[in-house]
Every structure is written in C-alpha cells, then in structure tokens.
Amino acid sequence: MIDSKALSPSLGVEFTGVTDPLDDAFVERAAEALKWRGVLLVRGLHLDDEQQLAFSRRLGEVVALRGQEIFPISINPEKSSSAKYLRGAFFWHLDGTSDDVPVKATTLTARHVATVGGGTEFATTYAAYENLPEKDRERYENLRVVHSFEASQRLVTPDPTDEELAAWRTQPTHEVALVWRRRDGRRSLVTGTTADHVVGMDPEESRAVLDELLDWTTQERFRYTHDWSLGDLVIWDNTGVLHRALPYDDSSERLLHRTTVVGDEAFG
Q1: Residue 266: inside a domain
Q2: Which of the 8 DSSP states describes residue 61?
Q3: Residue 45: inside a domain, yes or no?
Q4: 239: exposed, middle or buried (C-beta count within 10 Å: 0-12, 13-18, 19+)?
Q5: Taking the CB of residue 7, how many other CB atoms lie within 10 A of it?
Q6: Rg (Cα) of the chain, in Å, rounded?
Q7: Residue 191 resides in a domain
Q8: Which of 42, 127, 149, 194 has the greatest number of beta carbons closer than 10 A?
Q9: Does residue 54 lie within any of the structural domains?
Q10: CATH number, domain at 33?
C-alpha cells in the first residue's frame, strides 16, 4: 500500500510502499503531488537509468542534453564534463531561466552519496509569493528582471578572465516578469542567482531588491533540505521550486543521475 506524508509544512511529499513507479495509480498521484507540493521523495528505490527514464517519460518528454537523456551531476571532472559549471549549483536557482519555456520537472537518483555534506535544498516560490505582505506584492507586481548565465557564474568565479567572460556571454540573457502569473491562476516568483538586474532600475537598488527577495523566498519556513541516501529518487517542479546543492568535498564520490522533463508553460 502506498502512503504519503509531508516533508515540510510548505512543500514536499514522501511516498512509501512504492514497488512499481510506473504503476498508473502512483504516476497519477505523483503528478498531482508535484503540482501542489513541488517536491517528491521515494527513498531507496534504486532505479537504474532505464527505469528512471521510463518514469520520467510518464511525466513528459525528456530533454537530451548534449545528446544525453541521463545527465551525471558531479563536481568531479572525471565523472562529469560539466563539473566546472555545476559549481554554480551551490547557489539558489531555477533551471532554464534563459529559455522562453523553462523545464517542467527534474528527477535525480543517488548513485553515490557524500560522506559529509552534499544534500540538496529546495524552496517554494509559490508559498513565498502567497505569504508576501500586500505592500511587497504591489512593489513587485510589474517588475521585470533580466536573467543571465553570467550572473550565476560570477558567484563561483568573482574575478573571471576575459576568456571566461566571453564563454559566459555566449549564453543568451532573458527578460521575464518577476511575478509569474500562472495559467492555473496561481502566482510564483521567478528569482534565483541567475537574476542579473531589474529592468529600468538603478543598479544598486536593483541588487538590493533581488537580494532581499531571494532572502525572503529561501527562508526556513519555505524550505526542505534533503539528505541523500543511496538509491533515493527525488523529483521537483522546476517552475516553482528553487534548488541548490550543499557543499561537499571535491574528491567525494557523490554522483547523482538527472533527467529533465520538457516544460509546457512559458514564463508569464
């Protein structure tokens, strides 16, 4: 029998008793929980790559990144060719802020875990918006923000070389509304470390607004921290949940396998 319980007051559901993740009843419950609770956890499921892909495809079309539907997540360059850029994942972000339509959901399975550190934190931008004081809702309502890859990478490398800057700037910037008016009537916040500046605002004021909003969105009451165990499966709604990895040693064997599900709702 499949049971579920909340991971925190604001977000997350843990399912237990899952023996077949492709069972129609479970997939239906998972999709519904993903919409309303943002993060799903099944501990110790030990999916292999094909099983993870099969489950992901029940949620939607899977993105092939550089021809790979299964993408290794590691800061060890021997395990991932993107290890250098993945250091940006230590800071709060949404995936796909440079795209018109961000990715819908992400799944991770734990293949190796860090001895110390290496958890993943999540923060719900739905609850963050819903709990904003009315004066702040009015303040943010019509603001637009430019997102860039450079903004997030500057946190990793504050003093980049000309070559690094040139590489970052090959990635497109993207202007979106700070308050995303969702097609189901809800609203969420589009924030995170890719948020470069508020359109038309003085740079110093812009930075203050974005930092203040990120601090608000990621406060403890809107967060869930996942400590990985081998074989865990975690899925989250990338459109309404910020995430970040917690620090761990560069030499760690920590390795997560990721799939990414194509989005179906453009930024508002």
Answers
A1: no
A2: P
A3: yes
A4: buried
A5: 19
A6: 18
A7: yes
A8: 194
A9: yes
A10: 3.60.130.10
The number of residues in the chain equals 268
Q: Tell me if 250 sits within 8 A of 79, measured CB to CB.
A: no
Question: Tokens 């930075």 appear where?
Answer: 207
Q: Are the beta carbons of 103 and 267 closer than 8 angstroms? A: no
Structural domain span for residue 240: 3-261
Domain count, the chain: 1
**What digits encode the pLDDT tens for the residues 39-76?**
999 999 999 999 999 999 999 999 997 788 999 988 87
Degrees (nearest 5) of the Cα angle 186, 225, 66?
Answer: 75
Query: What pLDDT, on a 0 to 100 scale, did the predictor assign at position 83?
Result: 56
pLDDT averaged per 10 residues, the chain (length 268): 95 97 96 97 97 97 90 79 71 93 97 95 98 97 96 91 92 96 96 97 97 97 98 97 93 93 94
The pTM (predicted TM-score) of the whole model is 0.94
Site of tokens 């040693």 = 249
**Angle, alpha carbons 255-259-261 (nearest 5°):** 155
Continuous H helices in the chain: 24-37, 49-59, 83-86, 125-130, 134-140, 149-156, 162-168, 203-217
